[in-house]
Amino acid sequence: MAFKDSLKKLRIRNDLNQIELADKLNVKQYVVSSWEIGRSEPSISQLIELSNILNVPIDYLLDKDRVLVSSQEEFNIVTEHMIKDSIDDFEECVNAIRKNCTDEQKKEISNILKSLYNITK
């Protein structure tokens, strides 16, 4: 996932709209919007501030293959976000599949998902 996608996902997970995040960073809303569409990127100091506001390591925000953490707390935070990312990706995939299904197939998919959910409890 690119920085722009990570930023948007994390902003939404933190219940912030673009204006609120911009206010916390002392920038205009269009700056955050520009980052989220990939037109520009934040400075290093803004990345540090973003990681503090969004409560994630900079490596995670930049979507590095490996995320270095310095504490158990950071590890737990990153792990929680990775689980949420996996769930989001899975939901997107299922929704894309369901668009082309009959009502009967949609019911079958729902039953399978319920079974999978119950197994993971």
Model description:
The structure is a single chain. The chain is mostly helical and 121 residues long. The protein folds into two domains: 3-61, 434 Repressor (Amino-terminal Domain) (Orthogonal Bundle); 72-120. Helices cover 72% and strands 0% of the residues. It has helices at 3-13, 18-25, 29-36, 44-54, 58-61, 72-98, 103-120. Helix 2 (18-25) crosses helix 3. The longest helix is centred in the C-terminal third of the chain and has 27 residues, at 72-98. The protein is globular, with a radius of gyration of 18 Å. The two termini are 28 Å apart. The model has no long low-confidence stretch (mean pLDDT 88).
Pattern of helices and strands? HHHHHHH
Q: CATH superfamily of the largest domain, called what?
A: lambda repressor-like DNA-binding domains
Global geometry: globular
Question: What is the average per-residue confidence, as pLDDT, rounded to a whole number?
Answer: 88
Q: What is the rounded Rg? A: 18 Å
> The CATH topology of the largest domain is what?
434 Repressor (Amino-terminal Domain)
Number of helices: 7
| Residue share in helix | over 70%
As an assembly, this protein is single chain
CATH class membership of the largest domain: Mainly Alpha
What does the largest sheet look like? none
Search tags:
mainly alpha; 434 Repressor (Amino-terminal Domain); 2 domains
Short summary:
The protein has 121 residues and is an all-alpha fold. It has helices spanning 3-13, 18-25, 29-36, 44-54, 58-61, 72-98, 103-120. The chain has two domains: 3-61, 434 Repressor (Amino-terminal Domain) (Orthogonal Bundle), CATH 1.10.260; 72-120.
